[in-house]
């Protein structure tokens, strides 16, 4: 959570403390640098209803290998979250007793109940209700309710396919940007206008390396991708902001058209997915890399004048409890002097563990980081007779995590108290 005060909130206004807490939680919930335990979760009532309807449909259609009991854990989680939920209770009247009806219904009846709830508690309806409630409850300064509503807003928006980066940028600009002037809770509605999900059409232009000519084509119709030698209009208006080669000498561009998305970063992700598919399909027949994308991305949005220059979002390393440089150096010296891993029969295994951990640190892809870290843990943890590799890793890692747990609790508590 940001420790600095949101500059857009006027000092001394009514409900100042509640507004500051709301702003800080929205920022932390959407920040790419936040630990997972502080970010918005991936599951809430609208997403659970979608999963429940899908599972109930499989059961109703007697799909092979899908027992009727498979929906029970989803129903249990759904009814638990519906119970006492201040957002859903504002949409579904209490006298309908939907929780009891879901629990008592047979598999063939529960499908109809879930379908109706899915429509009534859609992501858009749920987000709208949560936003309205936040305006009302900010005046009460009840942090538990404010925390819950901020979490539900961000989770619902992300599940509707809005990018965390867009939400984070909008929140940061609104509460910490220059020229902000929040004098009352009602002003938060201006933020809602920025982040409420609305569909837009985008055209995205990537600058790429010259070897894209290896594709020997100028248009890939099914993907909506065109290969161009010159920067196309209207993107040429920003040509002075990117480092172009002299005209005709080495500039190449990929134009991806007609992308429907809720925000510019989601549109860029969809465009990158199409470009990645094009590249991977080419490499099925030729293993050379046909092109590399530059960091500069030019973007045109249907309802906004002009074009925008956006930089690629790199991997943001999460905050971890690292040793200081001096302490890390002492630990390295100590392991060099005393470790038995650097000699004897365990040497090759230790080298392998170190290399996989290094690959994890160097990679910008989060899945690759997790995979290489897991491989290093599997390699270093001793196998136990009668136990799987996963069980061996878990039993070996838990004591190491526990040794730092108390230290991290006190470090986090001290930081929170100071900020």
Q: Would you give an account of this structure?
A:
The mean pLDDT is 87. Helix 1 (16-30) packs antiparallel against helix 8 (164-176). This protein has helices at residues 16-30, 45-60, 72-82, 98-104, 107-120, 123-138, 143-159, 164-176, 189-195, 264-282, 325-338, 347-362, 366-380, 389-418, and strands at residues 200-208, 219-220, 225-228, 252-261, 293-301, 307-311. It has a six-stranded antiparallel sheet with strand order 2-3-4-1-5-6, covered by helices on one side. The protein has 14 helices and six strands. The protein is 50% helix and 9% strand. It is of the alpha+beta class and 419 residues long.
**Mass-distribution shape:** globular
The structural class is: alpha+beta
- Beta-strand percent range: 5-15%
Oligomerization state of this entry? Answer: single chain
Helix content: 40-55%
The average pLDDT is 87
- Tally of contiguous helical segments: 14
Lateral arrangement of strands in the main beta sheet: 2-3-4-1-5-6
Order of helices and strands: HHHHHHHHHEEEEHEEHHHH
Low-pLDDT runs: none
Distance between the termini: 9 Å
**Total number of beta strands:** 6
Rg over CA atoms, rounded to whole Å, is 26 Å
Main pleated-sheet profile:
6 strands, antiparallel
Relevant terms:
6 strands; six-stranded antiparallel beta sheet; 50% helix; 14 helices; single chain; alpha+beta; 419 residues
Question: Could you give the topology of this structure?
Answer:
Layout: H1 16-30, H2 45-60, H3 72-82, H4 98-104, H5 107-120, H6 123-138, H7 143-159, H8 164-176, H9 189-195, E1 200-208, E2 219-220, E3 225-228, E4 252-261, H10 264-282, E5 293-301, E6 307-311, H11 325-338, H12 347-362, H13 366-380, H14 389-418
Antiparallel strand pairs: 1-4, 1-5, 2-3, 3-4, 5-6
């Amino acid at each position: 959570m940001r420790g600095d005060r949101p500059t857009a909130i006027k000092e001394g206004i009514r409900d100042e403390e509640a507004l500051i807490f709301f702003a800080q939680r929205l920022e932390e919930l959407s920040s790419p640098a936040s630990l997972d335990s502080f970010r918005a979760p991936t599951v809430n009532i609208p997403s659970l209803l979608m999963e429940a309807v899908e599972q109930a449909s499989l059961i109703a259609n007697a799909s092979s290998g899908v027992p009727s009991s498979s929906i029970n854990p989803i129903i249990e989680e759904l009814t638990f979250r519906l119970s006492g939920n201040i957002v859903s209770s504002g949409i579904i009247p209490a006298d309908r007793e939907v929780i009891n009806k879901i629990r008592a219904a047979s598999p063939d009846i529960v499908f109809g109940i879930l379908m109706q709830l899915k429509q009534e508690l859609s992501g858009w309806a749920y987000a709208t209700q949560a936003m309205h409630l936040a305006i009302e409850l900010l005046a009460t300064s009840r942090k538990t309710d404010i925390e819950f509503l901020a979490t539900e807003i961000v989770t619902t928006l992300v599940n509707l396919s809005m990018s965390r980066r867009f939400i984070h940028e909008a929140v940061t600009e609104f509460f910490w940007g220059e020229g902000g002037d929040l004098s009352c809770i009602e002003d938060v509605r201006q933020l809602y206008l920025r982040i409420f999900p609305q569909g837009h059409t985008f055209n995205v232009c990537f600058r790429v390396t010259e070897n894209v000519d290896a594709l020997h084509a100028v248009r890939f119709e099914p993907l909506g991708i065109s290969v161009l030698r010159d920067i196309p209009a209207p993107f040429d208006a920003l040509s002075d902001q990117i480092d172009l080669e002299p005209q005709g000498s080495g500039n190449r561009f990929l134009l991806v058209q007609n992308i429907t998305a809720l925000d510019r970063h989601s549109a860029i992700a969809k465009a990158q997915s199409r470009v990645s598919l094009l590249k991977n399909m080419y490499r099925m027949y030729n293993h050379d890399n046909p092109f590399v994308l530059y960091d500069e991305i030019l973007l045109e949005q249907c309802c906004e004048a002009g074009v925008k220059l956006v930089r690629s979002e790199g991997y943001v390393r999460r905050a971890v409890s690292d040793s200081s440089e001096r302490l890390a150096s002492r630990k390295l010296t100590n392991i060099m002097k005393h470790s038995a891993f650097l000699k004897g029969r365990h040497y090759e295994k230790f080298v392998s563990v170190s290399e996989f951990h290094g690959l994890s640190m160097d990679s910008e892809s989060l899945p690759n980081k997790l995979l290489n870290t897991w491989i290093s843990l599997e390699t270093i943890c001793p196998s136990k007779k009668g136990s799987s590799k996963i069980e061996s890793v878990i039993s070996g890692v838990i004591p190491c995590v526990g040794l730092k747990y108390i230290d991290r609790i006190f470090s986090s508590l001290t930081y929170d108290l100071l900020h």
